[in-house]
Description:
This protein is about 30% helix and about 25% strand. It is α+β, with helices and mostly antiparallel strands. It has a single domain (about 50-335), classed as Carbon-nitrogen hydrolase (Nitrilase/N-carbamoyl-D-aminoacid amidohydrolase, 4-Layer Sandwich), CATH 3.60.110.10. The chain has a 6-stranded mixed β-sheet with strand order 5-4-3-2-1-17. The protein has a 6-stranded mixed β-sheet with strand order 8-9-10-12-15-16, covered by helices on one side. Strands 11-14-13 form a 3-stranded antiparallel β-sheet. α5 (about 210-215) packs parallel to α6 (about 230-255). The protein is globular and about 50 Å long.
Amino acid sequence: MDFTPTAIHAQKRTKTHNHAQSPDPPRGEHNPSPGAQRASTLCQNIKVHAAKFRIGLVQMACSLDPNENLAKAEWRIREAAARGAQIVCLQELFRSQYFCREENAGLFDLAESIPGPSTAALGRLAAELGVVVVASLFERRTAGVYHNTAAIIDADGALTGIYRKMHIPDDPLYFEKFYFTPGDLGFPSFETRYGRVAALVCWDQWFPEAARLAALSGAQVLFYPTAIGWHPAEKEESGAAQHDAWRTIQRAHAIANGIYVAAVNRVGFEGPPEHGLEFWGGSFVADPFGQVVAEAAHDREEILIAECDPRRIEEVRRNWPFLRDRRIDAYGAITQRVLD
Length: 340
C-alpha cells in the first residue's frame, strides 16, 4: 500500500470525487504554464492553517501486556481530549515495553500490519473524539521486513499517512538494527483537520537534516515519539548531561526551522535491575523560538497540553529568516558521508 502523501491525497480525492476524468484543456492563452501549475499544486499541498490548535502529549509507563498498554493509551487520549487537545501524540512503541534492550527473534511477534488492529482502534477513537492521533507502532511490512513507524490518524478516523523511522541506532540496550529496516518514505508532513504535522521518531531527533526537510514540507509542528533513558551505571556521572543534550538538540530544531517541536517520552524502569533502562520522561513542547512552553516530570506519567499558534511561526520567521538566507546552491556536499 502506498503511504506517500501524494498517493494518500490522491486516494482521498478518488473516494470523494468519483467522476469521469476530464479531457485535457485546449492549448492556448488560458492554459496555465507549467510554472503556474507547479505553484498551484504547491499551494494546494501546503495548506496554511491560521487558527490556533492545541496538542497533547501522553507520557506513560508500559506493562508487558500490549492490550493493557493500548487500553491505557486510549484512556489517556480521552483525558487529553477532555482537556482541549486536538492533536494527541503517543510515545514511541507505546503498545509494549521497549523490547530493543535485547536481540530476541521471538519479539517480532509484537509487530502488526498498518493498517491493522491498533490503527483501527485508534481510528475509531479519533473519530469519536474528533482528535488527530499520532501513534508509534512496530510495523510488519512483510515477512522479514519490519519498521518503527508513526501513523497519523486524522480527526475523522482515517489513516492519513505513515512515517517510517529513517535513522536506526545500535547501542548498548538500544539494539534497534536487529528489528527495524530503515524507512523509505523520506521526511513528509501531513495535512490534518487542525494543522500540518510531521512525525519523526526518537533517534531521528539528533539529525538536523531530518528536521529541516520536515519543516520544508510545510510542517507547523514536529512530533518526536521517543523511548530514551539512562543506563543505571551511567546516570550519576552522565545523566544530567545526556538529558540536557537531548533537550537542547530538539530546541535547536525548533529555532532553526521556526516551528513547534514536541517530544514525548516514556517513563519508568524496564528490564532487570542490572541490565534495564530508566526512561527519563521529561516530555516537552518548544515554540518556534525554542522556548519550552510545557514540560513533564522525569518520574511520573503525565499529559502535557500546549497551544500552537501559526501566527507565532510567521512572527519568528519574519524576524529570524533562516529559511530565506539558506545557501541552497552551496550545500551539495552534505549528501556525502565525509569530505576527505
